[in-house]
Amino acid sequence: MDILFIILNIAALLLFVGVLIVMQKKHVSFSKRVFTALGLGIALGLVLNLIYGVTSEVLAQSVDWYNLIGTGYVKLLQMIVMPLVFISILGAFTKLTIGKNFGKMAAIVLSILIGTTAIAALVGIGSAAIFDLNADQIVQGEAESARAEDYEARSAEVGDKTLPQQMLDLLPANPFLDFTGARDTSTIAVVIFAAFLGFAYLRVARKDSETAATIKKGIDAVYSLIMSVVTLVLRLTPYGILAIMARTVATSDFAAIYNLGKFVIASYVALAIMFAIHLIIISLSGLNPITYVKKAAEPLIFAFTSRSSAGTLPININAQTNKLGVSEGIANFSGSFGLSIGQNGCAGVYPAMLAFMIAPSQGINPLNPMFILTVVAVVAISSFGVAGVGGGATFAAILVLSALNLPVALAGLLVSVEPLIDMARTAVNVSGSMTAGVTTAKMTGELDKEVYNAPLETQTVE
Fold first, then answer.
1. Which of 17, 56, 72, 392 has the greatest number of beta carbons closer than 10 A?
2. CA triplet 301, 303, 304: central angle to 5 degrees?
3. Is the pLDDT of residue 29 over 60?
4. What pTM was computed for the model?
C-alpha cells in the first residue's frame, strides 16, 4: 500500500513538472514560470505534510524521489560553481576598464559587503533585543542535543586555532584541493588564487601585449564555454524550484516552528530590515529600488528555496549582467566575493542574534555598548571565508561565538527551525552581493542604465 502512495506522490510532482513544460512550450516568460513553480511547490508540500506528517516513511521515500529533481538541480549548479568563480574573477582582470579601475572597483565592492555585514550584526542585535530573545527559551530535544554536540566538536577544531592561523587558512596552499571544495574556506581560496593570476595577467599585459592578447583570448574562450554550461543549467530552474520547495514544505516540522516562533519571527524581521537597507543603498545610488526588486526576484527566489549562495551564483551573475546592466567584470567580482565575504544573513544577522541570546547565560549584559561593538567587529572579521552553501551560517556562528568565548552548543538547539530561517538568510546573502555589484557599477560608471530600466518582459534567460 505504501508503494502505491509513493507512486501517487511522484505522479503529483511529475504532473506539475508537465504543467511547467507546457508553459515553456507556450513561451510563457521565464519569470512567470519561476513564480508558478514556487507556488506549486508550496501547495504540493503543504498537502503532503498534512496528509502524511513529517515522520512518515511514505513521505521520506517520496522525498528521496523528489530529490532527483531538486537536489539534482542544485548539484548541477554546484558542479559549475568553482569553475565559474575562478574564471569570473580571472576574466574580470582581462576587461580593459576593470584593469584601469580595479582598485576602486574592488574597494567599493568589499566595503559594501563588509559594511553591510557590520550593519546586519547591529540589526540582528536590535531585533533580538526588541523580541527579548534568550537561550533559555529554546526547547531541547534529541535532534537539538545531537546538533549541540556537533557544534561543540566543530568549535573545538576552530578553537585550537588563533585568529592569525584562521586567516592563514584562507590562503590557497593547494589550489587544486580547493577546487574540490574540500575546506570550509575553499571558495575564498579559489578567489584569491584567481586574483593572483589576474594580477599576473596585468603584469604580462604591461610588458608583452602580444602574449597578453593570447592569454585574454584563452580566458575569454573558457569563460564563454562555462557560461554556456550555466545557461543550459539555468533553463532547469523552474523544475528545481518546484521540487525543492515541495520537499522543504513537506518535511517542515510546524510544531517545532511554533515552539520557536518568536525566534523565527525575530529573525525574519531582522532579515527584512536588512533587505530594506539594501533597497535604501540602491536608492541612494540614484536607481529605482522597485526595478531592482523585480529583476533580482529570480535569484532571490532560488536562493530562498535552495539555501545555497554558491548554487545561486550563476543566476546571480546572469541577473546582474543581463537584467540590471552591471558590467561582466563587476558582476563576476561581486557575485564571487559575495559567496565568502560579507554574507549579511548567515555571517551578519545570525551570529549576532545568537551572541545576544547566549551572553546572559555567561553573566554578560548583551546591551553593554562595548559588548555590542565587540560583536560587530568580530562578525565583520569573521565574515571572511564563510562557506556559500547550506551550513555556512553554522561555520560563521562557531567562529563568532568561539571568538567571544561563548558556548556554541546552545546554537545547536535551533536545529528544528534552521531550514526555515536559512532560506531567508540565503536570500539576504545574495541580495547583499547583488547590491554591491549594482552600486559599484553605478559609482564607477559601468552600469548600463538602459538595461537596468528596460522592461523585465524583454529580458529572459538566453
1. 392
2. 60
3. yes
4. 0.79
